[in-house]
Each structure stands twice: as structure tokens, then as C-alpha cells.
Q: What sequence folds into this?
């Protein structure tokens, strides 16, 4: 994939990195299936893929050395947030080709008793957690939110023994974090990974929860202006660009992740002095322009998760020229739905300057296959 693109280019120091071209998702799709491999197929021990939420899935490959280093990074993640010996850990994520499956083995390596439950209903997971005394888990935020709602409404919250949760693979707001933590009585941490860059294990929050620590011995990061490609200053929003440093099977140079973050000061009161990035605000391909205003789904999530009358599940539907409807799940016990709808409209207008229609649906009425699909764009533009 790189042999022709990099021909004649010279890199003698880290400052020369910006001379090299970006690698994009399209490059990897064009290289399907094995064009991005830098080793013989016989040296590959595992193939996984991205979820394909925003299009076709992308394969990612591991040699034995890649897999070992991946596990080491995931063990770092778990130990940094306090998961290890004495814990009973469940991985709620799909155990198929989704890279989140890595936490099942990593939990064992960190000293915990690992239960790779995989896909099941929130009710089944909670029942298992109560019966087996689960103390920690890994989940995508939309599923953790479903468990939180079920636990609160069913009265199971008081029977849980949860301490820690590692959550990622989707953007999620502080309101969603609070709801998950309060309903499950758990300490929830954001972590960051990209399937094509090796999966989770790029960055994670520490106990301070003031940004995510990047494992800089494996990944070199830049934050650039999405339009110009020029690096932005610390504290400015931009697109995260990642170069892998230790991968054998599929090294990537200046890979444009599509995720919007800020580069933060590296000093941290937890004692680590790694590069730090903010939590992901959203993806470039998730951001939509409505009536000239840039709208990220995370803004709607912040509002929906902050209202106790709502489950926190939502979907944005764009139609017509620029019509916007926000579907939200309303808790079963709510009587005055009209009041809730009016309050939600008011809060969204306050934060986004957009007047929206709100379509209330019954609890459980918004269904996702895998990762949550937050925006449905049906506009005739």
C-alpha cells in the first residue's frame, strides 16, 4: 500500500513526519483484503475488523508479536483504572470480529476472573452480574446505558457489586457517564481505540478523568485541522491523526481517524506524563450541517441523558430540505409526555440554536444493531 506512495521520500527526524502523506479510510478500503499487510499472510495469527458503522468494515491484522503487545496495552488500561486480581470481569461486547473482544483475555492476564459473555440482553447480563458477583465490565456506552436503565427500573442496582467499568467504541457524554455511574453504582472510564490501528489500547482515562492518556511508546499522535491538514495548537479542536510505532502486520502512517479531539497538557496529578487527548467530541462523518449550524449527536445525547424522564436513547432524523426530528425514548412511568417534549425542545434550542421536532417513543422503541446509529439523513439536498 505504501511502496509507491512513499518512494523517494526521506525522513531523518520526527520533524519530518509532516512531510509524509496522510493515510485514510479510503486507502484501506481500496487495499481490501490484503493490500495493507506488511508481512506474509502466513505470519498473521488473527484477523479482526471494524464494525462498519459508517460503511464497509476494514480488516485489521495481528502477528504473534502484535497480539502480545495489544494484550499488554489492554492490561495497562485495566490496571490503570484499578481492575485486576480479585475482580470478576465480564465483557459484554460481541466476541466475533469486533476488537472489543480483546478485553476478555486481557482481563485474565490482568489477574481478574474473566467471563466473555458477549451479546445478550441487558436483563441477562444484569442477572449474571448479580449471581456471579461481577465487579467490573467492558461495554459500549449505548449498551451500558440500557443496563443502567434496566437496573434502576427493576431494583437490581442494590444487588450489584460493581466497582469499575471500561466503556468506549462510541462517543458518549458526561450526562451519560453520570447516569451509568449512578444507576449501576460503578466508576466508569472512557477508553479509546480504532480497529484498524489495532483496536482499543491507544488511550484511556486515569482516576482524574481529565483527558485520556496515550500510550506513546506505541502510538505517535497529531491533531490537525480537518480541512487544511495543518497541525493545530494545544487546546484547539481538530482531527486525531495516529502513526503506529510497533505494529508488524499493519503499520499505518499518519492515519486520519475522523475523530474530533483536543491535545491536552501532558502533566497529570495521577503521575503519568504521557501525551493526553480530550474525550472524543464526535466524528467528522457524524457531524451534520442543519440550517448552517454544525450539529454533533453528542450534544443531543447530553440533553437526553440529563433528563430522568428519558432513557437516554435517541436518534436524529433529518428529512425534507432541513427538517430535524429527534426521537427519544420516554420512561414507562411518565404521565405528562407533552411537558417532557416541551422541556427537551427548549433545552436543545438553548444549546444548538435549532428548533426541532421531538418524537417520543416508548421505552425500548429505538433499536440498534451493534453500535448505535445516531443520525439518519433522509434529506433531499
A:
Amino acid at each position: 500500500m505504501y511502496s509507491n506512495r512513499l518512494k523517494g521520500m526521506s525522513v531523518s527526524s520526527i520533524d519530518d513526519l509532516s512531510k509524509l502523506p496522510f493515510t485514510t479510510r479510503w486507502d484501506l478500503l481500496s487495499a481490501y483484503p490484503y493490500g495493507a499487510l506488511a508481512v506474509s499472510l502466513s505470519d498473521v495469527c488473527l484477523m479482526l475488523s471494524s464494525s462498519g458503522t459508517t460503511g464497509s468494515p476494514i480488516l485489521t491484522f495481528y502477528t504473534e508479536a502484535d497480539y502480545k503487545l495489544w494484550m499488554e496495552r489492554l492490561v495497562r488500561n485495566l490496571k490503570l483504572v484499578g481492575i485486576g486480581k480479585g475482580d470478576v470481569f465480564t465483557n459484554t461486547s460481541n466476541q466475533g470480529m469486533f476488537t472489543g473482544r480483546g478485553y476478555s483475555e486481557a482481563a485474565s492476564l490482568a489477574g481478574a476472573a474473566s467471563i466473555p459473555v458477549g451479546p445478550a440482553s441487558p436483563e441477562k447480563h444484569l442477572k449474571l452480574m448479580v449471581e456471579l458477583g461481577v465487579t467490573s465490565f467492558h461495554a459500549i456506552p449505548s449498551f451500558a446505558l440500557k443496563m443502567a436503565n434496566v437496573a434502576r427500573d427493576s431494583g437490581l442496582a442494590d444487588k450489584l457489586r460493581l466497582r469499575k467499568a471500561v466503556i468506549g467504541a462510541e462517543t458518549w457524554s458526561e450526562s451519560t457517564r453520570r447516569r451509568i455511574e449512578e444507576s449501576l453504582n460503578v466508576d466508569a472510564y472512557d477508553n479509546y481505540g480504532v480497529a484498524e490501528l489495532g483496536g482499543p489500547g491507544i488511550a484511556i482515562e486515569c482516576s482524574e478523568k481529565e483527558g485520556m492518556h496515550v500510550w506513546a511508546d506505541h502510538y505517535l499522535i497529531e491533531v490537525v485541522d480537518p480541512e487544511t491538514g495543518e497541525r493545530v495548537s494545544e487546546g484547539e479542536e481538530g482531527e486525531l491523526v495516529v502513526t503506529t510505532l510497533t505494529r508488524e502486520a499493519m503499520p499505518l502512517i499518519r492515519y486520519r481517524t475522523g475523530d474530533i479531539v483536543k491535545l491536552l497538557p501532558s502533566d497529570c496529578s495521577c503521575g503519568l506524563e504521557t501525551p493526553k487527548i480530550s474525550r472524543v467530541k464526535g466524528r467528522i462523518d457524524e457531524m451534520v450541517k442543519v440550517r448552517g449550524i454544525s450539529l454533533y449527536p453528542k450534544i443531543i445525547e447530553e440533553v437526553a441523558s440529563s433528563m430522568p424522564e428519558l432513557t437516554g436513547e435517541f436518534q436524529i432524523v433529518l428529512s425534507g430540505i432541513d427538517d430535524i426530528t429527534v426521537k427519544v425514548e420516554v420512561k414507562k412511568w411518565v404521565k405528562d409526555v407533552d411537558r417532557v417534549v416541551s422541556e427537551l425542545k427548549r433545552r436543545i434550542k438553548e444549546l444548538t440554536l435549532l428548533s426541532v421536532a421531538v418524537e417520543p417513543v416508548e421505552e425500548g422503541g429505538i433499536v440498534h444493531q451493534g453500535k448505535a446509529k445516531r443520525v439518519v439523513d433522509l434529506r433531499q439536498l
Summary: Residues 34 and 41 are 8 Å apart (CA to CA).
